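TL;DR need structure tokens for one chain.
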Amino acid sequence: MPFVRINDTRLHYRTDGAPTRPCVVLSNSLGTDLGMWDAQAAALARDFYVLRYDTRGHGQSERGRAPLSLADLGRDVVGLLDALAVPRAHFCGISMGGLTGQWLGIHQPQRIVKLVLANTAARIGTAEGWSARAALVRDAGMGGVADGAPARWFTQAFVERGTQQVRTMIGRLREQDPEGYARCCEALANADLRPAAGSIGAPTLVIAGDYDPVTTVADAEWLVQSIAGARLQTVPASHLSNVEAEPQFTSALVQFLAGAT
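>> reply
TL;DR here they are.
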């Protein structure tokens, strides 16, 4: 399992496909790890060099220093691309990863070819809500957050199917480092890209879940209206749409990245 030290933080990453092909970076959501992208990585690796990583404080990546900002998360991606000698890449991020993608599109446009923003918004939640969640996990651990995650991440019908993937993801959330999770909550508390989202110039696909209570279709429509030329794709899912609506999500992702600019 490869690791690289970026910005004084040891990050875990994985690559699939030939490095001579165009690169696609996949960025996970809060409380998950790079395993959430297994289906998309398998589909993309036929034509792309797929680079996925555990956001700092998640999976096998170190939590790094405190405090943590969205800019730190974005600079981690730039450092990872530099370490692997990738000058430009497509980027697909979901939820927190989608905010990271927006930051890159705004502040590092020369590194981004195409941008996919999934189940995200220019502003997710409130500063008070994220600060309260950070305090909760520091005080009581990850149990309460993990107990409530299925209802936030998936529709009830999908949860009732009892798939192994859902059980695995909730189990990993329960085992998440509370301090790493809390620091990312604090980064989200201070992340508001609404004033700058309109400056994103990369071709952009916004994916929204029809039943997402966290980042709604209205949030996605706001991004599409703000980013010139952006297009919207909705899928029948809740917040982790790449898992719940995997065939539709993967198809939209592959077609967008493979299409002409």
